[in-house]
Amino acid sequence: MATTYLFVPWLIPRLKAQGIVGRDLNKPDKPEVAEMGGIAVVVGFFVGVSVIYAFDGIESVDLFNISLSAVLGAAFVGMMDDLFDMRQRHKAILPFIIALPFGVAVDPHFVLPHVPLIGSVDVNFGILMPIMAAFAVTCAANAANMLEGFNGLGTGLGIIMSVTLIMLCMIHGRLDGVYLLVPLLGTLIAFLYFNKYPAKIFPGDTMMLFVGATLAVAGILSNLHVQTVFIFLPLIVEFFLKMRGKFEAENYCSRAGNAHLVYKGRIESMTHVFMKRFRVDEQELVAIIWGIEIVVCALAVSVDLML
C-alpha cells in the first residue's frame, strides 16, 4: 500500500512528460489525465508479495511463482495495449498463452460447494485443466477491463471483489489465494486515493487486465471456482452488453454537463443504462455500479455460508 501511495505522485508528472495521457471525456472541459497508472499498482503488488516471501513462509513456492508469472503476464499485455493499442483478439489470446503454465501446475481436482442432500462433488478435469484455467484467467482479465471509464470505477470494483474473496478464503480455510489478494487489496486502496473523482491518474489496461487475472488466479488457488465466477457476474453482464456492439462501445457519456451525464445511443454497457434512464453525475454512477457489485458479493458470501 505504502509503495503505491508514494510511487503515484512520482509517476504522474513523468507519464505526462512522455505524453502518456488520456482525456477525461466525462468532464465538460475534458482535461488531460496521466494514463497507465497501473504501473504503480503492479509495483506495489510485487513489493507486497516480496514482503510475504520474506516474513511468511509459502508452502507451494513453485506454484506461487507460476501464479505470479500469469498475473504479471496479464499486466504486460495491458501495458502493451496502453502503449500500442492492440487488437481485441490479441488481448484475448496472449493472456491465455501466458497462463497455460499456471493451468498445468494447478491441481485438476476441485470441489464444488457443499449442497444439502447432495454434499460436495469432487470434479477432475484432468488434461483439460490447463486449458480451462488459462481460459478462466484470460476471461477474467478482459472482463475486468470491460467495466471501466469513470473515475475510480474499476479500482473500486477490484477492492470490493478482493475483500469478498479474502472473506471466502477465510471462511473455507483455503489461504493460498490470500497471498495474492492481500497485496492486491492494499495497492488498490492506495491507488483509489489518486484515481477517485476527480481523477489525477487513470489505471489503463495495465491495471485492469492485471486485477482481473489476479482475482481469477487467487480464486483457482483457493479452490473457490464457483464463488469467483459469481462475483464476476456484473462484469459478465457487461461482456454480453459489449458483445452487442462487437466490443467497440466505450463507457463514455455523449455529453457531460455540470449536473449530470447524458448518453444518446444504443445501450451497450451497464453505464449506458443509468446515463440514459436516470439523471446521474459521475460520482453517483460509480456509486451505483459499486452498489450492484456489493450486493452480488454479499449474496455470494450469504449463499456460501448457507450451503
How would you describe the overall organization of this protein?
This protein is mainly alpha-helical. The protein has one domain. It has helices at residues 2-17, 38-55, 61-84, 88-105, 129-146, 153-172, 178-195, 204-221, 225-231, 233-244, 270-277, 282-306, and strands at residues 21-23, 32-34, 109-115, 119-124, 255-256, 261-262. The strands form three sheets. A two-stranded antiparallel sheet has the order 1-2. It has a two-stranded antiparallel sheet with strand order 3-4. The longest helix has 25 residues, at 282-306. The two termini are 34 Å apart.
Topology:
Elements (H helix, E strand, L loop, with lengths): L1 H16 L3 E3 L8 E3 L3 H18 L5 H24 L3 H18 L3 E7 L3 E6 L4 H18 L6 H20 L5 H18 L8 H18 L3 H7 L1 H12 L10 E2 L4 E2 L7 H8 L4 H25 L1
At a glance:
The chain has one domain (about 1-225).
For the terminal residues, how far apart are their CA atoms?
Answer: 34 Å
Helix content: 55-70%
What is the total number of structural domains?
Answer: 1
Please indicate the percent range of residues in DSSP E strands (runs of 2 or more).
5-15%
C-alpha Rg (nearest Å) = 19 Å
What's the tally of helices?
12
Question: What summary fits the major beta sheet?
Answer: 2 strands, antiparallel
Low-confidence parts, pLDDT < 50 over ≥5 residues? none
